[in-house]
Amino acid sequence: MSIKHKSMFAIKRELKLNNVETSLMRGNAGFKRWVYNYGLDLIQSSWDFEDIKASDSKRLDTIKKVFTQVTMQKPEYAWMKLYPSTVYQSAFIDLKKAFERWRKGISGFPKKKSKKKGDSFTVYKTAGIYPVIGEPPLAFTNRVVINRGQRIKLPGLKELRLKERIDFICSSQTFTVSRTADRWFVAFMLDAQKIPPIIHPIEKIGVDLGVKILATCSDGTKYDMPITLQTAKTKLGKLQWHNRNKVLGNKNLKIRASKNAKKYYTRLARQHSKIANIRQDTTQKMTTDISRKAYVIRIEDLNVQGMKENHKLAQAVSNNCFYEIRRQLTYKQAHYGTRVELVDRWYPSSKTCSKCHHIQDMRLSDRIFNCQKCKHIQDRDENAATNLENTPPVQSTVGLTGT
């Protein structure tokens, strides 16, 4: 009997925009950025008044009222009424989440948004049919129905074209539009049920994440970043070197960026996007392949931030996306009916013999494990993956924790 898992699925499509539509997207993103920075400035200013005793959430609620009732009514800010109200509402929601993450120690203090980094904004449908006040609205009345084809209608915006068609009828309430380099994307979430496979070829597998090789499985399968990643990084370095003396603009010196400087920024963003896409494509295919063939997946509970403090390993650790791999394996549990188990981060998987369990010291440069007790010889990463498969786990991951 199949078990149905209800979860959220994200769909992301690239928008096919003309010049007018691109300007509209930039305007919405700029509006959200302005409101986000406005709220950040005011909440920092409110801390100077010791008589005000309120949480960050209540302060932001008050700032939102000041923005809507005072700031937006001024003649010089009449341009704000050209954009959907959900844009500035989502800006305050994002700012509130940023302060919550800072208070919990998950991330640093919120910083101001910059147009040089990827622009984004969120719109959502608020209207619905509510038969009883305080009760949920009627089904689908507060959602946007998305038809098959290459067009999508966003709340508060006109109908836009897509570069890739949607092959089914669906609905969603919230839509996030983002920019990567000079390309614009729309993303939205769906409630769906997926029937995961109940038969996996392998019952249990250990996955060792490494610096030299991206991942080694206990069944002998190895995954690594493609050579195209290094080629793209080399091209990025050459692009930066050739433009090292270009005058790119300076606000402090009141030097405006030239047209060639803006072209350079676009090429630079495209190259960074290409590198990120190669990493994302590799990790997605790898985690999907592992999730399809094994029911129980065991990985180490790595201290990624601690590993980055070693300057000799920092670049390789960032390049191999250790935490991203764990995140993907975790959320794909519901998709493929798997169970991800974490092994203690202090377990010496690389120093333990997979045959006799003898523990011996090894240097990072030693790529072959040669047991001094039973004379077992095996590749270092394969030996570690076998140990991860057989050792008892610390916990089964039902969510993500910061590491």
TrEMBL record:
The Cas12f1-like TNB domain, residue ranges: 322-388
InterPro entries recorded: Cas12f1-like_TNB (IPR010095), Transposase (IPR001959)
Location of the Probable transposase IS891/IS1136/IS1341 domain: 197-310
Molecular functions (GO terms): DNA binding
Keyword Lipoprotein: no
UniProt keyword DNA-binding, yes or no: yes
One of the protein's GO biological processes: DNA recombination
Key words, A-Z: DNA recombination, DNA-binding, Transposition
Organism superkingdom: Bacteria
Entry's family note: In the C-terminal section; belongs to the transposase 35 family.
NCBIfam families to which the protein is assigned, alphabetical: guided_TnpB, IS200/IS605 family accessory protein TnpB-like domain
Protein's name in the database: Putative transposase
Top-level taxonomy: Bacteria, Bacillati, Cyanobacteriota, Cyanophyceae, Nostocales
